[in-house]
Amino acid sequence: MSVDGFSQDGGCRCNRVRFSITQKPVITMACHCTGCQKMTSSAFSLSALVPSSGFTVTLGDPVIGGLHGVDRHYCCPHCMSWLFTRPNDVEEFINVRAVMLDDANDYVPYMETWTSEKLPWASTPAVHSFAQLPAREAFPGLLQAYAERDGA
Ligand SMILES: [Zn+2]
Ligand SMILES: [Zn+2]
């Protein structure tokens, strides 16, 4: 349990891997890239960017999946659900697949990326859309806007 009392648990399809987050996400996202389409077998991925210090695997031993490239995608070794990603060169945050949280209702995607690759019919309620990824310099403003959004 963190100092402000925020704590949420999540897990894979078979619950052999469980995790908890004890810090609020700094932003929520949908990604329409074709890689996320393949990884999710769906139209887009949903994620919550959580400080690494607020993320703990509490059960099981997730393994690397996806492309096994510089971004490390972690999956359950049994049911193969995609659980979280440790992005290359960003040690301070973990990209948790938001729908793996036991209660994902509040994780409305605030920004969406790679709309240049999205399926023509796919849409999300994201407030900010990017054809690819936002510039690195845009992140502080995006995180601040997310923290100050209605309903925060
Ligand atoms: Zn599993
Ligand atoms: Zn993607």
Automatic annotation (TrEMBL):
Gene3D superfamilies, A to Z: glutathione-dependent formaldehyde- activating enzyme (gfa) (3.90.1590.10)
Superkingdom of the organism of origin: Bacteria
Keyword Iron-sulfur: no
GO MF annotation list: carbon-sulfur lyase activity; metal ion binding
PROSITE patterns reported for this sequence: CENP_V_GFA (PS51891)
Alphabetically ordered keywords of this record: Lyase, Metal-binding, Zinc
UniProt cross-references to Pfam families, sorted A to Z: GFA
CENP-V/GFA domain location: 8-111
Family: Belongs to the Gfa family.
Name of this chain's protein: Aldehyde-activating protein
